[in-house]
Automatic annotation (TrEMBL), chains A, B:
Highest classification ranks of the organism: Bacteria, Bacillati, Actinomycetota, Actinomycetes, Kitasatosporales
Pathway(s) it belongs to: Amino-acid biosynthesis; L-threonine biosynthesis; L-threonine from L-aspartate: step 1/5; Amino-acid biosynthesis; L-methionine biosynthesis via de novo pathway; L-homoserine from L-aspartate: step 1/3; Amino-acid biosynthesis; L-lysine biosynthesis via DAP pathway; (S)-tetrahydrodipicolinate from L-aspartate: step 1/4
The UniProt record lists the keyword ATP-binding: yes
PROSITE patterns documented for this protein: ACT, ASPARTOKINASE
UniProt keywords, alphabetically: Amino-acid biosynthesis, ATP-binding, Diaminopimelate biosynthesis, Kinase, Lysine biosynthesis, Nucleotide-binding, Transferase
Entry keyword annotation includes Membrane: no
Protein name per UniProt: Aspartokinase
Alphabetized InterPro entries for the sequence: AceGlu_kinase-like_sf, ACT-like_dom_sf, ACT_Aspartokinase, ACT_dom, AKii-LysC-BS, Asp/Glu/Uridylate_kinase, Asp_kin_monofn, Asp_kinase
GO MF annotation: an example: aspartate kinase activity
EC number: 2.7.2.4
Function: Catalyzes the phosphorylation of the beta-carboxyl group of aspartic acid with ATP to yield 4-phospho-L-aspartate, which is involved in the branched biosynthetic pathway leading to the biosynthesis of amino acids lysine, threonine, isoleucine and methionine.
A Pfam family per the record: AA_kinase
Residue span, ACT domain: 268-344, 350-423
Reactions accelerated catalytically: L-aspartate + ATP = 4-phospho-L-aspartate + ADP
Length: 423, 423
C-alpha cells in the first residue's frame, strides 16, 4: 500500500457535517494501510463571501492582498478537517501551501507552480500523521509572498503534490460520480466513463467539460500521475484518467470518449482583411497584447475577386469588450473593414483518440447535427477532436443528437448527482 | 516624525465600513509624515464563529490545529485593510505574524513571544509602504508551526513590534476613549485618565480593568514603549501610559489613579490547616500542579488554642472545580479539615503610586466602604494598591462609594461609549 493524495472540493466540506464525513473517509484510507495526503478547498461559499467583502472595501480587488485574503478560506477548512480526524483518534497535521512547499511564480491571483518541496509533508507522514494541505495556494519563490493558483487551483495542488511525493494515485473527490460522456444536466442518458486517457481528457477539458480542468490534467500527464475522479458522497468507483487502463479500469479505449459543450464563449469576426502575409499576425498580436486568451480561429480562403478575407475567432465572453477595444485601435494600421461581435453562440465538441483511425467519424458527426436541424457556423479540428460553433439555442439539442448518434447513451435513465465542484 | 505602531481591535474593523474608516485614519498618520505599522485583530465576531465551527467538529478544540484555524481571522481583516488603504491611493502590504517575524515558543493557544525579527516590515516601510500585521499570532521557533498568543494577544503583538522597530509610540485603538478612573458602566462619573504610569496601569490591569491587559503593559514597560489608548471612533486624545508624562500629557501624577473591580473570581478557604512549616507550600504546590493561577492569598494568625489556621485564596471561577479536585486529593497528606468554595464574591481595588507617601489612604478606603455598608471579607495590599474582597452584590455600590470618596468623580455626567474591545 503506497501513498495516496486525496483532494476534496468546497462542496464536500461545505459544513461541519461534510467535514466529519470527509474525515471518516480519510481515516478509512489510512486504516487500509495508505499514507494519506489530503488537499482541501475552502468550505462551500467561503471564497465568494471573502470576494464580496473585498468588493465592499475596494472596487477591483486584485493582487497580493487579494491572495492573502482568499487563502484564509483553506486555512479554515484544513484546520477543521485536521481536528475532525483527530477526533476520530488519528493524528493529522494541516499545512499551508507555503508550509507544504508549493513554490510558485509571482503572478498573483493566477500563479503557476514552479517547484514543490514537500519536506514537511514527508516528515509528517513518516511520523504516522495524515497530512492536510491547503489547496489553491503557494508562496512566491522571489518575494516569499502568498499566492493563489487561480481557477482549478486545488486540483492542481493535489496533482503537483502527488507528483512530488511519487503517489500511487491522485483522487479528486467531488459531488459527481466521475467524468461523463456528456454533461448529465443536458443529456439524461450520459454515462460515467470508467477510464479515459490523458489526451482525451485534455481535449474534453479544453472543450467545456468542467469536472477536471485542463491545467490539472496536463500536470498529471507530464508526471504520469493517475487521477481518480470520484464522488465524496458514495463509495463508487469513479473515472480513472491515466496513460493506460490499469487495475480496476482494464477496459478497451472507446472510439469516442464523449461530447463536450461550452456556451461561455463569444465570436468575433474581423471582416474584410486584406489577404496578404502579416495581417493575421497583426490581428492576433493586438488581441494577445490585451492579455486575452482565444480559442478557435477560422479563416476561409479569400474571394478571388476582392482579395479580402474574413477571420473569425472565439474567446471568453467576459473578454469580448476588451478584445473589440483592442482591435478597434488597430483598425487603421491593419486595414480591415469592420468587426462583428456575437455572444449568442455555443460550441459542441466530439472527443476520442479513436477518430484518428475511424475515417467515418467526421461525416457521422455532421450528419447527426444536420438531422437535428442544427446549422454549423464554424468548424475546427484536432487529431482527436472535432468542434463546431452553432447558435447558443441549438447547443443542448445538438449535444443530445450527437451523443445518441455515437452510441454513447446508457440503457437506463441513470440518476446522477451534479452541481458545482468548488474550485 | 518617526515610526508609529497602531493597533485596531475587532470592534473597530467589524465590517467593511469600519475597515474603510480605519483605513482613512491610518492614511492620515502616513500623510502627517509617520512611518506606520498597523496591527489588526480579526473582524468583529469572526473568532467566535471560528470557535463555534471548531466545536461542531471536535468537542474540545485546542492545540496546533486550533491555532491554524483562528489565525485565519486576522488574515482576512489585514488583507481587507490593506486593500482599503490602496483604494485611498496609498501603498500597503499585509504580513502574517510569521512574515512579520513574531517568533514564539511552542505553547499553542497561549504562546509567548521570544523574539521579533521584523526585517520584512522594515523593508516594506523603507519602500514607502504602510505595513499591516496580523495580531495575536506568531510562528514557533523550533517547529515553525503557527501559534496564537492567547487573550490580549493583538495588543502584545503591537507593543512587541513597537519595541523591535523602536517606535515613538504604540497607539491602541479601541471602542472606548481611554482608560477610566473606574468602569464607566458602573460609575457614571468616571473620568478618562490623561496619563498613567506603567506601574499603576499594571496594578489596574491585574485588578480587573479590561482596557489593557497586564501582559501587554508589562512588555511596554520592559522596553519603555509609550502606549496611547484611544478611540477609533473619535479624534480625541486618549490615555497615555508611560514612565514619565511627556508631550501632550504633561500632568502631575494623581495620588490615586483609579478604582478597579473584578467579579470573575471565586474564593477557596482551606479550613483547619495545622500551623506548621510546609503546610502552605503543600497546598499551593497542589494548586500549581493543576496549572491554576491564583490571585490573592490570605492567612490569618492561628488560634493559639487549636494550633490550626485557615488559608483563603482567590482564583478564576472557571478553574474552581479543578482546584477543589486537586486539593481534595491531597487532603490526607496535607491534613486540613475541610474546603469551602464561594463564587459569590467580588474584588475592589484602589490603585495609585501616591498611596506610598500618603498614609491616610488605607483608612479612607475602609471608611468609604464602611459608610456604604459594605462588609470586607479579605484584604490584600501591594505598595501601590489595596484590594478587598466583598459580597458580589456589594461590588458596584462599593466602587461608586470609593470613587467618590477619593475625589475621582467628574463634574459632568460624561457620556462614554463602551463595549467589548476585541482581543
Amino acid at each position: 500500500m503506497g501513498l495516496v493524495v486525496q483532494k476534496y472540493g468546497g462542496s464536500s466540506v461545505a459544513d461541519a457535517e461534510g467535514i466529519k464525513r470527509v474525515a471518516k473517509r480519510i481515516v478509512e484510507a489510512k486504516k487500509n494501510g495508505h499514507q494519506v495526503v489530503v488537499v482541501v478547498s475552502a468550505m462551500g461559499d467561503t471564497t465568494d463571501e471573502l470576494i464580496d467583502l473585498a468588493e465592499q472595501v475596494s472596487p477591483m480587488p486584485a493582487g497580493r492582498e487579494f491572495d492573502m485574503l482568499l487563502t484564509a478560506g483553506e486555512r479554515i477548512s484544513m484546520a477543521l478537517l485536521a481536528m475532525a480526524i483527530k477526533n476520530l483518534g488519528h493524528e493529522a497535521q494541516s499545512f499551508t501551501g507555503s508550509q507544504a512547499g508549493v513554490i510558485t511564480d509571482s503572478v498573483h491571483n493566477k500563479a503557476r507552480i514552479i517547484d514543490v518541496t514537500p519536506g514537511r509533508i514527508r516528515t509528517a507522514l513518516d511520523e504516522g500523521n495524515i497530512a492536510i494541505v491547503a489547496g489553491f495556494q503557494g508562496v512566491s519563490a522571489d518575494k516569499k509572498d502568498i499566492t493563489t493558483l487561480g481557477r482549478g487551483g486545488s486540483d492542481t495542488t493535489a496533482v503537483a503534490l502527488a507528483a512530488a511525493l511519487d503517489a500511487e494515485v491522485c483522487e479528486i473527490y467531488t459531488d459527481v460520480d466521475g467524468v461523463f460522456t456528456a454533461d448529465p444536466r443536458v443529456v439524461k442518458k450520459a454515462k460515467k466513463i470508467d477510464w479515459i486517457s490523458f489526451e482525451d481528457m485534455l481535449e474534453l477539458a479544453a472543450s467545456g467539460s468542467k469536472v477536471l480542468l485542463h491545467r490539472c490534467v496536463e500536470y498529471a500527464r507530464r508526471y504520469n500521475i493517475p487521477i481518480h475522479v470520484r464522488s465524496s458522497f458514495s463509495g463508487l468507483q469513479g473515472t480513472w484518467v491515466s496513460n493506460e487502463p490499469t487495475g480496476d479500469s482494464k477496459v478497451e479505449q472507446a472510439i469516442i470518449s464523449g461530447v463536450a459543450h461550452d456556451t461561455s464563449e463569444a465570436k468575433i469576426t474581423v471582416v474584410g482583411v486584406p489577404d496578404k502575409p502579416g495581417e493575421a499576425a497583426a490581428i492576433f498580436r493586438a488581441v494577445a497584447d490585451a492579455e486575452i486568451n482565444i480559442d478557435m480561429i477560422v479563416q476561409n480562403v479569400s474571394a478571388a475577386s476582392t482579395g479580402l478575407t474574413d477571420i473569425s475567432f472565439t474567446l471568453p465572453k467576459a473578454e469580448g469588450r476588451k478584445a473589440i477595444d483592442a482591435l478597434e485601435k488597430t483598425k487603421a494600421t491593419i486595414g480591415f473593414d469592420s468587426l462583428r461581435y456575437d455572444d449568442q453562440i455555443g460550441k459542441i465538441s466530439l472527443v476520442g483518440a479513436g477518430m484518428k483511425t475511424n475515417p467515418g467519424v467526421t461525416a457521422d458527426f455532421f450528419r447527426a447535427l444536420s438531422d437535428a436541424g442544427v446549422n454549423i457556423e464554424l468548424i475546427s479540428t484536432s487529431e482527436i477532436r472535432i468542434s463546431v460553433v452553432t447558435r447558443a439555442d441549438d447547443v443542448n439539442e445538438a449535444v443530445r443528437a450527437v451523443h445518441t448518434a455515437f452510441g454513447l447513451d446508457s440503457d437506463s435513465d441513470e440518476a446522477v448527482v451534479y452541481g458545482g465542484t468548488g474550485r
